[in-house]
Amino acid sequence: MKIKKIILSLLTLCMVFSCEDSETDSNLSSKSAIHDSPVVQNLLKLGYKIEDIKETEDFYLVQGDLIFSKNLNDYKKGETNRHASSNNLVSQQYRVITVGIDSSIPQSGKNDWRSAITSAMSKWSDLSGNSIAFVRSYDPNPDILIKSDNNALGSNVIAAAGFPLSNGKAFNEILINFDFYNNLTVSENSKIYNMVHELGHCIGFRHTNWEGEGLYDQYGNLIGANYIPNTPSQDANSVMNGGTALNSWNGFSSYDVTAVNYLYPGLACNSRLSGPAEGTCAYDRYNDPIRYNVYTIGTKQTVFDESNTSWQVSGNSLEIVYTSSSACEVRVKANNTTWPATGIITKTSGAAGCITTYNVSLGNCINYSYSD
User: Fold this and answer.
1) Largest Cα–Cα distance in the chain?
2) Of all helices (H) and strands (E), which one includes residue 293?
3) Exposed e or buried b for every residue in 122-159, given b needs 16+ CB within 10 A?
């Protein structure tokens, strides 16, 4: 089998080997109930057999190792800031990617993947020559949420992720199967390997040894042949090879680095702000305005330059009361009467005049009855 690095906007799984069909899986819907689905109809036109299509709560599982979204709109061609392609990539404004760890991931014991997740994020972020960075987020709506599969995956599937869809953002979810091989103890290095692999899917990398998995979307369009230049016909050391769930982390191959640098070249401006969540209370229990930080949570650009930093806020509801090179503090104005109190915080910095924005929306909770 030839091995090439490509990207694809369909969903896929990290598999040890292809799943066997299970006619009695209680977590999957009956075939007759899904036959009329538009997605299933397109899958049948592509030659897939109805007995090979299983339905879970969130997606269709085909031939044991292919995930298809139930939403037809997820398969529309998306636009990125790189090039026009039938394969979706992460757009420039979304390449500093926030990652959250769901409470379903234990904080201790054999099923604790938290340190492996953090390490995997650093492996990607520490690569130079590209614009991809992953940052840990405690926001309720991170770009990617990593959580337990809740028994959705087969016992021989260690983890699952997807490719960027049509909104220009990284795929928003990674599932981890704690019942992998009957709750096999997975080493820390294997956990890191698998998380690096799944994060790679989220930013658009298909399995390097993709050719046995098919090239077509459910419309019958040939969409999977976007080869990445300067990568070889075989790369046994690629972290994106499929069927490698029991591998241990041993670094990216040189061609993995070539691939990510080609797809996501370095950018002169590439940072991300964070701040209060939408609807956060504007006042404390004493009805005084709360000062909220809006701050830089991640930067990965060709030249790090925080000189000549300035902060501005749009609208008439909010005011900036403190600034530094990496953060500002914002609060509702004393005379504000418009709710929610909204404004766009704009940071401008560096010789390149890099502009980063964050939308703030505070709620009116004055005279709210706080309980002790």
Assistant:
1) 69
2) strand 292-299
3) ebbbebeebbbbbbbbeeeebbbbbebbeebbbebbbb
Give a yes or no: residue 5 inside a domain: no
Around 23, how many Cα atoms within 13 Å sit in the side-chain half-sphere?
3
Query: Do both 180 and 226 map to the same domain?
Result: yes
Q: Which residue has the higher pLDDT, 152 or 345?
A: 345
Q: What is the dihedral of CA 196, 117, 103, 270, to 10 degrees?
A: -80
| Tokens of residue 132, six digits | 């991809």
Give 49's pLDDT tier (boundaries 50, 70, 90).
confident
Instruction: Report residue 172's pLDDT band, with 50, 70 and 90 as the boundaries.
Output: very high
% of the chain at pLDDT higher than 70: 77
Q: What is the CATH number of the domain that holds 279?
A: 2.60.40.10
Same domain, 176 and 310: no
Could you tell me if residue 372 is inside a domain?
A: no
Query: Which neighbouring-strand residues pair with 342?
Result: 361
- Model pTM? 0.78
Nearest 10 degrees: Cα torsion 41, 47, 52, 58: -40
The 10s digit of each residue's pLDDT in 173-191 is 999 999 999 999 999 999 9
Task: Tell me, yes or no, whether 152 lies in a domain.
Answer: yes
Are the C-beta atoms of 139 and 100 separated by less than 8 Å? yes
The parent domain of residue 64 ranges over: 11-263
Place of tokens 């046994």: 236
CA distance linking residue 221 with residue 97, whole number of Å: 30
276: left (phi over 0), alpha (psi -120 to 50) or beta: beta
Coil, strand or helix at 255:
helix
Q: Are 260 and 133 in contact (CB under 8 A)?
A: no
Letter for the amino acid at 164? P
CATH code of the domain covering residue 198:
3.40.390.10
Residue 325 placed within a domain: yes
Cα(358)–Cα(281) distance, rounded to whole angstroms? 17
Q: How many distinct structural domains can be found in the chain?
A: 2
Q: Is there a single domain that holds both residue 289 and residue 142?
A: no
